[in-house]
Recover the amino acids of this structure.
C-alpha cells in the first residue's frame, strides 16, 4: 500500500460534497458519459449544447449536422410562422430531438419573450424554421406531460387539470369538457391526460397516441370521492394548505376511465369498461391498425388481471383475451406490444411461470380457454388466444428495447447471465434463440436504432467505470465511442468492496450481500458496522456495476471507519415471483429475518464490534430500519429511518393493498406490521427523518409513531426537511447525509 | 451531612416523576394546600368532595353545612324541576359554589344520563333542589365559557360560535342572530361571547353581566377577513385540517364589536364605536347603575389609549374620559372599578408614572383637559375628569382584591416590599395609607370576604412551604388554618438554591438571579452549567416562594450535576415600564445582553466549566435560547429551545405589534430579530422542540428556521409532540423533560 504524507495525504480523503448527488464536486468525480447519444433513424447522433453530430456506426467518426448558431439565426430571420411575442434565442440543443429518420428536421420547445411555450421545427437542410406553434398556459401554470406524436406532428399536453392538443398556430384544442377556469383548477377533482393509479402498474403517463396519429387515448381520473391529505407549505407568508388527494388503504379510491379523442372529428368516446369503482385500468396500448385499444384490467384486490380489447371507434368492449389469477397478487407492468412484421401477433408479459417472461399471442387463433396452472405453482390463467412462450427459465426479462424487423428479432434486456446484471440479447421470435449483444459482465443500458440493427450500449461493471459502444445486434463487433476511467479511483484511496452470498432465513435461498471494509482496514481493530437496507419490492441494491452499486455515502462511512453491509433479502427485485411475494400480508417480517442473517454475517467477522451495529434505510428501508430497531432492540445500537412507513393503513391503496390487502380483510397483518404497536420496545437511538410534505409516505406515519413513543415513554429522535418530499435532492441531499453521518458519529462511533 | 447507604441512599434521588407536573408522584411531593377554601358572604367555607364546611374566622373551627349525600338524596327524590333524561348523581362538591351570602344555596353543574348539562340549585336549609335548567348543546359541542350571574340567576355560555342565556327549563335563548347550523359552525368566521384579541389587554372572557343582571354585554368578533393558519390533526384516520384564524403581524386583523343584550326586552344593541378596523376594544366594565359601559380603546399601533363611556341602552358614545399616549406602547390590562361606597368615583390603572398604579377619577368633576407628561418622562396623557393618584412609588400594584366598604379601603396586592413578592395591603382611599396584611416576606395569594373584613391568605416563601391564614384586613392577628411542610425537603437531599443581584448590561439596573449548585456540591469540581431563560414581557422567573420559583427540572438537573442559573433581565415583569419597554422594536437584543451578564457570573464561579455552558427556554425563552446560540456561538455548547418565536412576522398582531410595530413600519427591527438571518452561525448543539399544532408560536416559525439552517449548512436538532399545543402537559411534560435532559446529557455533560 502506498502511504502518502502531508498535503498529499489530505487529498486522499473525499468529502460528502464529492460523493453525494447535489454535492458541489459530485459531477467531477463521476466517470465520463455521453448523454446526448441517440438515434436519428439508423443514424447515430450525438447532441451537445452547440451542435448535433452524426456518429459513424463503423468508425465512430463524427460529422456536424446542425449548430445552435444556425438555429438561432433562422429564428432571428424571417419566419413563415410568427409568435405573438418575440421568440427567445435557444440556449442549448441538448433537449432537441430528431424524430423522423427520413427528414432533416429537429424539434424543440422554446420560450417567447412573454413566457409562452412554443414547439419549433427546424429543417437543417433548408436551414429554416418550418413549423412553430404555441402551447396553452393558464393562471401561471405551464404546460406539462408533453407528448409529441411524430406521425401527425401534434403535441398533447396538460395545464392544470386540463388536456390540450396543439399542432399549429396560437390556439390549442382542449379535449376535456370546459370548466370554469379559476385558480382552484389545479386542485380540481377530475384530471385529464395525467398518470393515474399513483404510477403503479407501470403507468407513467396519461396520453397515448395511436400508431398513425389519428387518435389520442387518455386517462380521465375522478378523485372527488377521495379524501384529501392536508399537506402544508410553510414557505409562504402565512403557511398555506396544499391538499393532496390520497386514497389510503381500505378507503375509497378514485375512478378512472379511458377516453379516445379523434383528431379529425374532434370527438371523444370513452371505453365502455363498466363501473370503474375499485378497478384498475392499466397498460394502455393500440393495435397497429388503430381499430382497437387494449387494457389490462385489474380488480381492487389485485389478484385477477384481464387483458381486454376495446373498439377504439365505438368504445365497445369486444373481448377478454387473457386472464390471470394468483392467490396473492398479479401485477401487470407492461403493455402488450405487436410484432412490427406481423400485425396479428403481440407480446404479453407474465410471471405465471415464476419469472417475468414474454409470451406471444396470436390474435387470429382463438382458443377455448381452460383454467391452467402456471409453473410457479400458484398462478392460474386462461388463454383465449393461442399463446407460445418466447422466453422461459429461472431468470427474467426486464425490458423490450424494440425489434430488428429484418431479422424478426426482439431486442431485450434480461438477468439471464446474472441477477445482478442486465444484459442485452437479440431474441429470435420464431425459435426463442437468444444472442448476447455486448460484453458478458456488467450492466448494459441500450438504445436501439430504428431498424433494430444497432444498439448504443452504455456499459458499466464493478471493474469498468464506463464504456460506450455502437454494436450490431447480430452479435458482431462494433465501435468503441468511450472508455472512461473512474476519477474516484484515481484520486482517492477507496475502501475494499466485495460481494458474496449468504443463505436467507428460509435456509435455501441465496441472498447477495455487499460488504465494504473501512479504508485503511486493520484486521486487528474492532469497527462499528452499519447495515444499509431497503428490503421492499421493486428495488435491488446490489448490481455488478460501479462499486457494486454502493452509494457515495457508504464509501464515505467506510472512509470514516465503519463497516458497511447491504443484503438484498427476499421481497426485493429481480429474483422472481416467489422471492418477492413470500412477504404477502406481513410486510417486513420475512424481510427482517433475512436482514438478521446479515447481522449474523457481521457478527462472524472478527473486525466487527457486535455491540456497535447500526441500521439505515429510506422509505421501505425506513420502515425496515424502524422495525429492526423495535424488533431486535438488543442488536441495533443506532438507526436512522428516512421517510418511513409506520402503519400500512396510512399508505396508498395501489401499492399498499397489493402486498397487504386491506385493513378490513387483513386486520391481523396490519396490526402485526404496525410499528406503533412496538413503540415501547425502543432501546437504541433511532432518528426518523422526513420531508415536511412527503406525498408518498405522508407525515402522518411519523407523527403517529412519535405520539406512540411518547405515550410508551420511549425516545426516538426526529428531523424534518420542510417543503421536501419523499426524498431530499440537490443541496438538501448533502445536508441530509451530513445529518445522518453526525447521528451515527454521535451514537455508534 | 448525613450519608445514607444502600437502599436508603437510593431513596435520596428524586426522579422526573417526582418533580414534573404530570409525573406519577408529583402531587405527593407538593406542600399541602386547601383548594376548597372560599367565602360565602363573610363566612369562610371549605369544600371537599363529600362536604362543605364553614370555618370560624376566629377559631378555625369547622362546622358541616352540606353533604354530597344529602344533595344526591335530594336529586334522587321528587323534584319540582324535571330534566328530560335522568340526572346523574353528583360525584364531588368541589366544583359547587355558594354565590349568595344571604341564601343557603349551593349551585353546581351536573350531567343528565343523556349527556345534557344542567345547572342545579340546592337549598341546604330546605334540603331540596330549588332550581334546575338545561344548557344547550349542539353537534357534539358542549357548553363553554359559562358565566353565571348571581343577581338574575342566569347563565351565559357559548356553544361553538353561538352565545346563549339560560335561566329556566329546557330551552336557552340564543343571543346572536341564528345561522344555519352545521358541522362547520365551529370554524365559522364570526364568534359571539368569547374572548377576543387573542387574550391580550387583560381580556380573558367574552361576556359581562351588568351589576344588577339586567343586561349582558358581550364581544362579537368577525374573523372573516383573517387568514387561516392550516393546523393539521394527524390522530384521525386520515390527517385532517383544523384551520385556525391567525392574524399575523402586519396582516389584516379581525374586527370586534360589543353588543348589549337586554334580558327583559330580548333585544341587542351594539355600542356605536365606529369602524372597528385596526382597533382594540378592551377592559369592558359597567357603571353601578347599569346605564353606562366603559371601554378602553386602543389604536392598532397600541400607542394611544382612550377610556370611553357609552350609553348602555342606546349604544351611543357619550364621552372620552381619559387618554394616554406613549411613543412605544400603552398597554391597558385592567377595567375600571367603581368604589362600592361612592358610585361617582372609579379606579383607573396606569403606568404613566413608570409603574402600574391606581388613580381615582371623579365622574362628577369634569376638567378641561390639557396634555401632561407622566413621571416616566415619556407618557403623555389627558384627563377629562378630576384624577388623584391612589398609589405612587417605584413599585407596582398587581391586583385589586376588592373593598372593605365599611372602612372605605381598597384591598390590593403589590410589590411594595420587594419586586420578588406579592404582599397584601389595605389601601385607605382617602389618604392613600397602606396597611400590610399578613407576613412581610413571601408570596401571598388572597381571597377577600364579601364585606372586605377578612382575607384567606395563602402564603409561601423560600423558607415556608405553605401557611394559610384567615386574617382581618385591619392588620390584626388572625387564625392559622394550615402550616405545611415540604415533602421534597423531608425526603431528599436538595441542592443549594440562592438568589442575588447583578448589574444589567446598562451598568445601572439591578437584576435578580437564582443560582442552584449541584447536589453534593464539591467546590473543587468543574460542573457544566445551564441557563434557564424566559426573558420576555409579562413573566418573572424568580420570586420569594418555594425554591425561589425554581422548577422541578432545575432541581433535577442540579441533582444530576449541573449548575443552574436564571436571570430575570430587562424586558421581564414586575420591575416597571422602562425596565420592560427598553426592548421596543428590537425584541431579544437588550434581553440577550442581560443574559450574557449571567454568563459572566457563571464564568466567574470557580466551579463552573466555562466550556460547558448550555441554555434552555420555552416560547419567548425558546426565542432567547435560539438567539443566544446563534449570536454567541462560542459561548453556548448546547441549547434546547421550546416552541420558539423565530421571526416576529409569524407572530400574532396583538402581542407582536405592541413590542415590534409592524413589518411594514419596522422592517429593520424585524430583520435584525429574525433568527433565520443568523441560521448560518450555529456552532453548538441546538434542539428545537415544538407542539405539532402549536396555536401560539405556529409551527411555521420552526419549519422556516430549519429550512434556513439547511440552506446555510448548519445542523439543528428537532423534536415534535404531535397534537400538542404551545406547552406539553400531563404525561407529555414528563416525557419532554426526559427528552431535554437526555439532550444535555448527550451534548453538555
Amino acid at each position: 500500500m502506498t502511504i502518502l504524507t502531508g498535503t498529499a495525504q489530505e487529498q486522499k480523503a473525499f468529502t460528502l460534497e464529492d460523493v453525494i448527488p447535489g454535492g458541489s464536486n459530485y459531477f467531477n468525480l463521476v466517470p465520463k458519459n455521453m448523454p446526448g447519444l441517440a438515434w436519428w433513424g439508423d443514424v447515430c447522433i450525438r447532441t451537445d449544447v452547440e451542435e448535433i453530430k452524426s456518429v459513424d456506426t463503423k468508425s465512430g467518426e463524427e460529422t456536424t449536422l446542425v449548430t445552435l448558431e444556425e438555429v438561432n439565426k433562422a429564428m432571428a430571420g424571417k419566419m413563415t410562422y410568427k409568435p405573438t411575442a418575440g421568440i427567445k434565442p435557444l440556449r442549448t440543443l441538448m433537449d432537441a430531438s430528431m424524430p423522423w429518420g427520413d427528414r432533416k428536421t429537429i424539434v424543440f420547445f422554446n420560450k417567447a419573450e412573454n413566457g409562452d411555450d412554443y414547439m419549433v421545427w427546424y429543417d437543417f437542410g433548408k436551414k429554416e424554421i418550418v413549423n412553430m406553434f404555441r402551447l396553452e398556459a393558464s393562471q401561471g401554470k405551464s404546460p406539462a406531460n408533453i407528448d409529441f406524436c411524430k406521425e401527425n406532428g401534434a403535441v398533447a399536453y396538460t395545464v392544470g387539470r386540463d388536456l390540450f392538443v396543439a399542432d399549429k398556430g396560437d390556439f390549442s384544442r382542449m379535449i376535456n369538457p370546459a370548466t370554469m377556469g379559476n385558480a382552484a383548477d389545479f386542485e380540481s377533482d377530475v384530471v385529464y391526460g395525467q398518470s393515474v393509479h399513483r404510477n403503479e402498474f407501470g403507468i407513467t403517463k396519461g396520453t397515448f397516441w395511436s400508431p398513425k396519429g389519428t387518435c389520442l387515448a387518455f386517462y380521465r381520473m375522478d378523485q372527488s370521492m377521495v379524501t384529501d391529505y392536508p399537506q402544508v407549505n410553510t414557505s409562504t407568508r402565512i403557511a398555506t394548505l396544499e391538499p393532496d388527494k390520497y386514497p389510503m388503504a381500505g378507503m375509497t379510491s378514485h375512478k378512472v376511465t379511458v377516453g379516445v379523442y379523434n383528431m379529425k372529428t374532434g370527438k371523444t368516446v370513452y371505453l365502455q369498461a363498466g363501473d370503474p369503482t375499485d378497478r384498475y385500468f392499466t397498460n394502455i396500448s393500440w393495435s397497429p391498425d388503430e381499430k382497437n385499444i387494449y387494457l389490462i384490467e385489474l380488480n381492487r384486490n389485485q389478484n385477477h388481471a384481464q387483458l381486454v380489447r376495446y373498439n377504439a371507434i365505438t368504445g365497445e368492449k369486444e373481448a377478454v383475451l387473457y386472464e390471470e389469477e394468483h392467490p396473492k397478487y398479479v401485477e401487470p407492468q407492461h403493455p402488450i406490444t405487436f410484432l412490427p412484421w406481423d400485425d396479428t401477433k403481440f407480446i404479453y408479459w407474465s410471471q405465471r411461470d415464476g419469472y417475468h417472461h414474454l409470451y406471444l399471442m396470436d390474435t387470429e387463433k382463438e382458443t377455448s380457454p381452460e383454467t391452467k396452472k402456471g409453473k410457479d405453482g400458484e398462478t392460474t390463467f386462461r388463454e383465449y388466444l393461442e399463446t407460445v412462450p418466447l422466453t422461459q427459465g429461472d431468470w427474467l426479462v426486464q425490458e423490450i428495447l424494440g425489434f430488428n424487423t429484418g431479422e424478426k428479432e426482439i431486442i431485450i434486456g434480461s438477468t439471464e447471465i446474472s441477477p445482478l446484471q442486465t444484459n442485452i440479447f437479440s431474441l429470435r421470435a420464431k425459435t426463442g434463440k437468444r444472442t448476447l449483444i455486448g460484453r458478458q459482465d456488467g450492466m448494459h443500458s441500450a438504445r436501439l436504432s430504428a431498424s433494430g440493427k444497432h444498439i448504443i450500449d452504455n456499459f458499466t461493471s464493478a471493474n469498468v467505470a464506463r464504456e460506450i459502444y455502437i454494436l450490431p445486434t447480430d452479435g458482431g463487433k462494433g465501435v468503441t465511442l468511450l472508455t472512461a476511467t473512474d476519477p474516484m479511483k484515481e484520486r482517492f484511496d477507496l475502501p475494499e468492496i466485495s460481494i458474496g452470498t449468504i443463505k436467507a432465513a428460509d435456509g435455501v435461498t441465496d441472498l447477495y450481500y455487499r460488504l465494504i471494509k473501512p479504508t485503511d482496514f486493520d484486521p486487528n481493530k474492532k469497527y462499528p458496522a452499519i447495515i444499509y437496507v431497503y428490503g421492499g419490492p421493486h428495488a435491488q441494491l446490489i448490481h455488478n456495476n460501479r462499486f457494486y452499486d454502493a452509494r457515495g455515502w457508504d464509501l464515505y462511512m467506510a472512509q470514516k471507519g465503519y463497516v458497511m453491509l447491504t443484503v438484498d433479502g427476499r421481497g426485493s427485485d429481480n429474483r422472481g415471483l416467489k422471492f418477492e411475494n413470500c412477504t404477502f400480508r406481513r410486510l417486513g417480517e420475512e424481510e427482517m429475518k433475512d436482514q438478521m442473517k446479515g447481522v449474523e454475517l457481521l457478527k462472524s467477522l472478527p473486525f466487527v464490534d457486535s455491540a456497535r451495529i447500526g441500521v439505515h434505510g429510506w422509505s421501505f428501508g425506513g420502515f425496515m430500519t424502524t422495525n429492526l430497531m423495535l424488533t431486535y432492540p438488543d442488536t441495533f445500537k443506532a438507526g436512522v429511518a428516512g421517510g418511513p412507513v409506520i402503519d400500512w393503513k396510512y399508505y396508498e391503496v395501489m401499492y399498499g393493498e397489493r402486498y397487504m390487502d386491506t385493513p378490513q380483510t387483513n386486520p391481523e397483518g396490519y396490526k402485526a406490521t404496525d410499528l406503533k404497536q412496538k413503540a415501547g420496545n425502543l432501546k437504541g437511538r433511532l432518528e426518523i427523518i422526513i420531508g415536511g410534505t412527503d406525498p408518498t409516505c405522508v407525515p402522518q406515519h411519523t407523527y403517529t409513531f412519535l405520539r406512540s413513543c411518547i405515550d410508551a415513554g420511549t425516545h426516538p429522535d426526529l428531523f424534518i426537511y420542510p417543503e421536501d418530499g419523499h426524498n431530499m435532492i440537490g443541496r438538501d441531499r448533502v445536508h441530509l447525509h451530513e445529518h445522518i453521518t453526525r447521528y451515527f458519529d454521535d451514537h455508534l462511533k
In short: Chain A touches chain B at residues 227-230, 232, 234-235, 237-241, 243, 246, 248, 251, 650, 692, 698-700, 703-704, 706-707, 710-711, 713, 715, 717-723, 731-732, 735, 738-739, 742, 746 (CB under 8 Å). The longest strand of chain A covers residues 608-618. Residues 1-10, 182-187 of chain A have pLDDT under 50 and may be disordered.
